[in-house]
Amino acid sequence: MAPVAVAQNGTDHSNGYTKPQNGHATTIELPMKPNGSLDDYKYNDLTPCIGREFPTANLVDMMNAPNSNELIAELALTSMENLRLRGVVWFRKQDNLTNDLQKKLILKIGELSGRPKTSGLHVHPVLNSEGEVGEQRDPDQEISTISSKLFSKVYGRHPDSALSQKKQNADQWHSDIAFEPVPADFSSLRLTECPKTGGDTLWASGYELYDRISAPVQKFLEGLTCTFGRPDFIAAAQRGGFKLYEKPRGAAENIGGELQAIHPVVRTNPVTGWKSLYPVGQHCQFINGVTEEESNMFLSWFKRLLKDNHDLQVRFHWNDPNDIAIWDNRCTFVHDQMKRFADASGDDPQLALKLNFQNDLPSLSLSTREDTHVAY
Q1: How far is CA 35 from its chain centroid?
Q2: What's the domain count of the chain?
Q3: pLDDT tens-digit map of 92-125
Q4: Which domain of life is it from (predicted)?
Q5: In this predicted structure, what is the pLDDT of residue 343?
Q6: Helix/strand/coil (H, E, C) string of 148-208?
C-alpha cells in the first residue's frame, strides 16, 4: 500500500501560503484501507453518500475489545461498499462513555489514523476562554461545553444594536476550527441534555461538493488558497468582557489571539487520498489572490452548492442524552442546529460536550478517487 503523495515544501509569495512539508510526521502508512472489523455491527446508512448510524453498538465495549485497535481504526475510515466513505457516524445512548473515555476514544482514533506526536485535543478560544461568561462549563479545557444559553450570550447581537435580532441559519455551515493553522481532523459531539423538540444537526460531504464541479474549474480552484478567521470571536470577547484563550490550543501553531489562517481551497484527506472542497461557511474570510468581487462570487457559490444539493446532506435527530456523533472535518461540513437563539430563555435547553482532535496541516495531493476511478 503506497502512501499518499505529500505536497512539496515551498512558498507561494502571491498569497503568503507555505505549502506544508511532512513536518507533522504521521505514524502509519496512508491512505488507509478498510479492514472489515465493523461489518458484524448493525448499522443504517442514512443517505447514499454520507452518514452511518450504529443503533446498538457500544463504544466502551469496542474500546475494551481484544481487537479494539482494528475497530477504532475502522471507525476512522468508516467504509462501505465501493470504498465510498461515510464522513460521519453516530452511536445511540452511550451512557457508560465518560468524559475521560470520550477523550481517550478521540485520541485513539487520531493515533490509528496517523496522528503526529505534536498534535492533540483542541482548546477552543471562546468556549474555553479565560474569564467568566455567565455559564457553567466543564473544568477540562480540552472539552468544549456547547450550551444553547451560552451561545445566545456569546454570539447573539447586542440588544442595543440597530440591526434585527433575527438570524439566518444558512451561515452556520462550517468545518471545525478552520481559523487555526492546524484545524480539526476528527470531532465528537455528545449531547448531555436534549431539547423536547428540534435541535437537529446536519452534515454535508465535501467530497461530493468537489466532485460536482467541472474538471477545468476544479483545476483552477486547486491553485487557490483561502484566508479563514473568526473576527466575531474577538468582538464577542470584547463585548462580553472575557479574554480569549491565547495559549497553545492543541498544537504549537495554534497560539495567540489573531484567530486567522491560510489553507488551500481544495484539500486532500490523507486517510483516503480523496479531494474535498474546504472553504465553506462561517470561517471563510476571502479567497487570496483574486479580486474582492471574485472572492465573494466563489464563496457564495460554494455555499449555494452545499445548500442547494440536499442529497449530499444528512440530518440527525438526537433522541436521548449521550447520543454521540463522530466526524472527519477534512471532508465533512457541519451545521449545528443548536437551539441557541430560539430558546435563550432556558425553557427548553440543549447542552453538549464537544472534542476536536487536530492532526496535520491541510494540503493538496493526488486524489486516490481519480486514480482508482471509483464511482462518485
Answers
A1: 24
A2: 1
A3: 999 999 999 999 888 888 887 777 777 888 899 9
A4: Eukaryota
A5: 46
A6: HHHHHHHHCCCCCCCCCCCCCHHHHCECCCCCCCCCEEEEEEEEEECCCCCCCEEEEEHHH
Strand 260-264 to 284-287 pairing = unpaired
Joined together, the cell numbers standing for residue 75 give: 471507525
- The answer to the question of residue 241 being in a domain is yes
- Could you list the residue range(s) of the whole structural domain that residue 287 is in? 28-158+170-362
The confidence band for 73, taking pLDDT boundaries of 50, 70 and 90, is confident
Residue 300 belongs to domain with CATH number: 3.60.130.10
In a domain, 371, yes or no: no
Nearest-angstrom CA–CA distance, 74 and 35: 7
Residue 183 lies inside a defined structural domain of this protein? yes
Between the alpha carbon of residue 292 and those of residues 181, 286, 321, the distances in Å are 23, 8, 45
Mean pLDDT of 81-88: 57
Let me know: does 189 contact 325? Beta carbons within 8 Å: yes
Residue 367 counted as domain residue: no
Percent of the chain with pLDDT over 70: 72
Using DSSP's 3-state secondary structure scheme, residue 252 falls into coil
Task: Give the DSSP letter string of 48-89.
Answer: SSS-EEESS--HHHHHHSTTHHHHHHHHHH---GGG---SEE
